[in-house]
Amino acid sequence: MSQQQTINISDLDVAQLSEVRKQLEDELNHLTNSFAQLKQAQAKFKACLENVNEVRPVNKDKTILVPLTNSLYVPGKLADPEHVIVDIGTGYYVKKTRPQAVKHYADKVEYIRTNVDTLEDTIQKKRDNMNYLTSLLQQKIQAETQGGPTSRGS
């Protein structure tokens, strides 16, 4: 079993504070990138939801553009407006009714929203820690340049 040791951050010297700041900055960058990726995924699922809502019985036998890739579409006719093909991930597709597809995508959007909210809170806490750490680091650097190296306990 490992024991956790608590260290008062104000007891660290400039080099140690700089290292902690760099680690915190790396974490913050990673979390921010994850946040952006989640927002993109959420936007894609919202677009899928809108697309499913556009498939209506009124549009049966009308010509539509069918996506083969993100940038390649071919014309086709809407034969069955009551069913859609849903990408459930890793290259698997499932035939679903329109209400089932709407529920599937709405659930995905909601799941991502809860993760985005949690991640947003985490990012804000990390930013607050970063601001505190930066302020402390600046104070230590200023103290060293004004009065020479400071030593603990003097």
TrEMBL record:
Alphabetical list of Pfam families matching this protein: Prefoldin
Protein name according to UniProt: Prefoldin alpha subunit
Phylogenetic classification of the source organism: Eukaryota, Fungi, Dikarya, Basidiomycota, Agaricomycotina
Molecular functions per Gene Ontology: unfolded protein binding
Family statement: Belongs to the prefoldin subunit alpha family.
Listed GO CC annotations: cytoplasm; prefoldin complex
Swiss-Prot/TrEMBL keywords: Chaperone, Coiled coil
PANTHER family: PREFOLDIN SUBUNIT 5
HAMAP family the UniProt entry points to: PfdA
Keyword RNA-binding set for record: no
GO annotation (BP), single: RNA polymerase III assembly
InterPro entries on file: PFD_alpha_archaea, Prefoldin, Prefoldin_subunit_alpha
Coiled coil regions in record: 14-41
